[in-house]
Amino acid sequence: MHTRPRVVIIGAGFGGLQCARKLARAPVEVTLLDRHNYHLFTPLLYEVSTSLLNPSDVSPPIRSIVRSARNTSFGLVEVDDVDLDAREVISLSGLRFPYDYLVIAAGSTTNFFSNASVERDAHTVKELPDALEFRNHVLRCFEAAEMEDDDALRRTWLTFVIVGAGPTGVEYAGALAELVDLVVRNDYRRLSRDMFRIILVEGMDRVLPSFLDRLGEKARRELERRGVEVLVGRRVEELADDRVVLSGGEVVETKTVAWAAGVEPAPLAGRLRLERTGSGRVRVDERLRATGHDRVYAIGDIAAVLDEDGHELPMMAPQAMQEGRYVARAITTELRHKEVRPFRFRHKGVMATIGRNAGVAQIRNFSLSGRPGWLAYLLVHLYYLIGFRNRLAVFGQWAWYYLRYDRPIRIIARARQMEADAEPF
Amino acid sequence: MHTRPRVVIIGAGFGGLQCARKLARAPVEVTLLDRHNYHLFTPLLYEVSTSLLNPSDVSPPIRSIVRSARNTSFGLVEVDDVDLDAREVISLSGLRFPYDYLVIAAGSTTNFFSNASVERDAHTVKELPDALEFRNHVLRCFEAAEMEDDDALRRTWLTFVIVGAGPTGVEYAGALAELVDLVVRNDYRRLSRDMFRIILVEGMDRVLPSFLDRLGEKARRELERRGVEVLVGRRVEELADDRVVLSGGEVVETKTVAWAAGVEPAPLAGRLRLERTGSGRVRVDERLRATGHDRVYAIGDIAAVLDEDGHELPMMAPQAMQEGRYVARAITTELRHKEVRPFRFRHKGVMATIGRNAGVAQIRNFSLSGRPGWLAYLLVHLYYLIGFRNRLAVFGQWAWYYLRYDRPIRIIARARQMEADAEPF
């Protein structure tokens, strides 16, 4: 028989990991489940996509992170379902993980807004395999263009469309512009900067819709100064045969559409028999418990946590982290038979970078832009990176990039695919 | 019309790259072709396979390397054939590269010795995608074992067979033993070192057959001290269904066979209408020209370059590098209408490492082992790495590993496969 309550956490993203770490010394047994063996620091994923960081720099192994927590074990599994009556999490391969408390932190997935052509052909920007694929693809486009004699075809290889001008889209566009500037000038004899087009498409009427107006405007000017074409109030209608059709009928010939237009709750949310809101997220009470289930918590992108005005919090890392820590405290408080206070989100701010010396940050009552905004961005991201080694590695890469004007991780490489290599779980 | 002679080099491995760099200031136009966009520093590939180095640490982009050579251009192509009459290299996609001088430096590929079951199921250790796949696979074996309740099945996940006890096999076995020691102790609650088997199988009667007897013996003892089972005088008969059958009938249950048993000339050698030796390598004269072709050179693994006793030089990096530099000099000498002297290989030595503080090195008349051998190994490999950034990166990783007893790049990750992502060349 087990003596300590068992906490099973589904997902080792920002929310799940914070929850696990906060429970490290609590009188519980923690089982952390994820379908990857690493925690992904998604805010810097665009720097993997654009040849600045190594994949390992943003993906510390989960086992390393929880190593010192003696009450915590990790399972590399894809969670298929939860048996809420039997209180067991069930993996795709049929493994069962019994729990006394469950924390659902399975995150989100790309939202294609039911556009099948986008889902089929666009590059996603959410997971590490996406970033590696995008890096390979972009570098291959440069190589193909260098050997292409037909002007129109060459332009198709060198046109990059980013959809969505939230922080992710802005960062992809800015970093791509920088990659082109730094690399093309030096490395490609037959290409010049004016052959390239980088187009940022946004459905709303401005860049960085969730930021203050003037910060969005600054970001737009910085992007344009770096040669990015910014199209606001436009949507992607269709992708097909190296073409994007935009609302209004404009057609762009391109081999590359990166889809940063939004996310939706992970499919697991739909498989559980839990009440959900219109956004598809799991409905939770003020203590982040799923409706009707005292010991089932949901946090992060998959959970519909409300702010003071009754709006759902956006699907972002700081929200997930605060919720993860809150749930850890709530569980230990309950175990001590003390009163658990409702969750209250503390808004710390938002930030994004456009590239070298250019960032925008909105921190509580004041805002930063330009170089101060950029420095704030760097410091905050170094601070939130997990693990000394990862901070050291990212700092080293940034220093190299800043001093040498180089994005050095320019390899087109993928793991060899072996037939016998299917996931065993 | 072109005014300067055109030199086309097939392959940017050790031989081709040395040749290109040596021609950087010669009055020729150089075209360097490779099917990868990076130069692979193969001697350290096993450290990518065993979670110590990032892929980018051992694979600088070729364009970065030849950036300063204004007479050199690079083409990312798979060479399909050479039209020796028209003097043109032809890529798979049909691109043609006319030459006045041709340097064939296409290297080698894994030799499966006609064993179809090995070719189908063994892990190869030759290219970067092999190393990434091997790393993913090994880490996945650890994870599967951690969740396996059946003892026999768990042992199958934790048994690793390396075939071939040349430097590559020895290094894989030693590094794998270290990975197990460092990682399992800290990260896996249910696994212990004695559940693992690492088996090194060698067909000849000793470890490191090309080294002095006593160095091979030292390497064997070091491996055994680190828990590697060394089986000499044994061959792999067959792989099937998680089993290896060895000569003599012994059967080992395993999910992992790494094939480091040998290489053979790249398939291009067979497609060209050039005379070859019994080993399949292109026959060359004492000036490294293919028989009957004044301006076609072959170097490195693909060429049958003879030593003073008339034996073919082994397929190794130092040989290829000396041959590459020689051919560059031979071409420029000929262009100045001076006499070209025959190629003569200078034997610099061989080395291998078993792990932390343990290496063997045989340099001209003297040999080193233990920690001095290991330090010599580290210094020589740092020296031969190309590019300041790569030296810095590898040195940093080694320092971390040495001081922290860690192999940190433990991510199971592959690039997402997209349908539209087929090679365009």
Features:
homodimer; 425 residues; alpha/beta; FAD/NAD(P)-binding domain; 2 domains; five-stranded parallel sheet; 12 helices; 22% strand; globular
Tell me the layout of helices and strands.
The structure is a homodimer of 425-residue chains.
Chain A: E1 6-10, H1 14-22, E2 29-34, H2 45-49, H3 62-66, E3 72-76, E4 79-83, E5 88-91, E6 96-98, E7 101-104, E8 108-110, H4 116-121, E9 123-124, H5 128-146, H6 151-157, E10 159-163, H7 167-187, E11 197-202, H8 213-225, E12 228-232, E13 236-240, E14 243-246, E15 251-253, E16 256-259, E17 263-265, H9 268-271, E18 282-283, E19 296-298, E20 303-304, H10 317-335, E21 350-355, E22 358-363, E23 366-369, H11 370-384, H12 388-404
Parallel strand pairs in A: 1-2, 1-7, 2-3, 7-19, 9-16, 10-11, 10-16, 11-12, 18-20
Antiparallel strand pairs in A: 4-5, 5-6, 8-17, 13-14, 14-15, 21-22, 22-23
Helix pairs in contact in A: 1-10, 5-6
Structural class of the secondary elements of chain A?
alpha/beta
- Termini separation of chain A comes to 27 Å
Q: Count the domains of chain A.
A: 2
Total beta strand runs of chain A = 23
CATH C-level name of the largest domain in chain A: Alpha Beta
The number of helices of chain A is 12
What is the subunit arrangement here?
Answer: homodimer
Strand residues, percent of chain A = 15-25%
Q: Which CATH architecture of the largest domain in chain A is right?
A: 3-Layer(bba) Sandwich
Strand order, largest beta sheet of chain A: 3-2-1-7-19
Overall 3D shape of chain A: globular
Chains forming the largest contact: A-B, 64 and 63 residues
